[in-house]
Design a protein that fits this description.
Elements lengths: L1 H12 L9 E3 L8 E4 L2 E5 L6 E3 L1 H9 L4 H12 L8 H22 L18 H21 L7
Antiparallel strand pairs: 1-4, 2-3
Length: about 160
């Protein structure tokens, strides 16, 4: 079963969650919480979910909604300030898998998969089933990425 495969893969990679020291993690990093101009970030807002943790958790939250080109730019921006560890891709895939599972639970519990294009997560002309397919696809992509340490080009 799929949930057993996911649980087994997470257990196999749980050592990636061991950090020597955490840093400030926003935990709601989305474009509506970033102020600035097209080529410059001026500020981040809405820190009510912030924790001490892994910076790749924030980058993985961006990967819940954006494609590989966007994520590559975000990673490049991050690495222009601070280097990433050798295991950064697997850590990011693990965080993406966890974050997408949480998002799937919220989406099921809130009935999003039965909604129409009027919901902010569903584009015009789409419906809840397209959001369900996107959610399932992103979970599967994160699972495969974690297992194979693949590049983010699969997003």
């Amino acid at each position: 079963m799929q949930h057993e495969r996911i649980a087994r893969t997470i257990r196999e990679h749980e050592n990636l969650l061991q950090l020597e020291q955490g840093c400030l993690v926003h935990k709601d990093l989305a474009l509506w919480n970033v102020l600035g101009e097209p080529n410059r970030i001026a500020a981040f807002i809405d820190f009510d979910d912030a924790i001490s943790g892994d910076p790749l958790d924030d980058l993985s939250l961006l990967a819940c909604f954006h494609d590989c080109a966007f994520i590559d730019r975000a990673v490049a921006g991050y690495t222009s300030v601070r280097p990433l560890s050798a295991q950064y891709r697997r850590r990011m895939w693990l965080h993406l898998l966890r974050n997408m599972i949480v998002k799937a639970v919220i989406r099921v519990g809130s009935g999003y998969f039965g909604r129409d294009g009027g919901l902010f997560l569903i584009g015009p002309g789409d419906n809840g089933q397209s959001l369900r397919q996107q959610t399932e696809h992103r979970i599967e992509t994160a699972l495969k990425g974690l297992q194979t340490n693949s590049e983010f080009s699969t997003l």
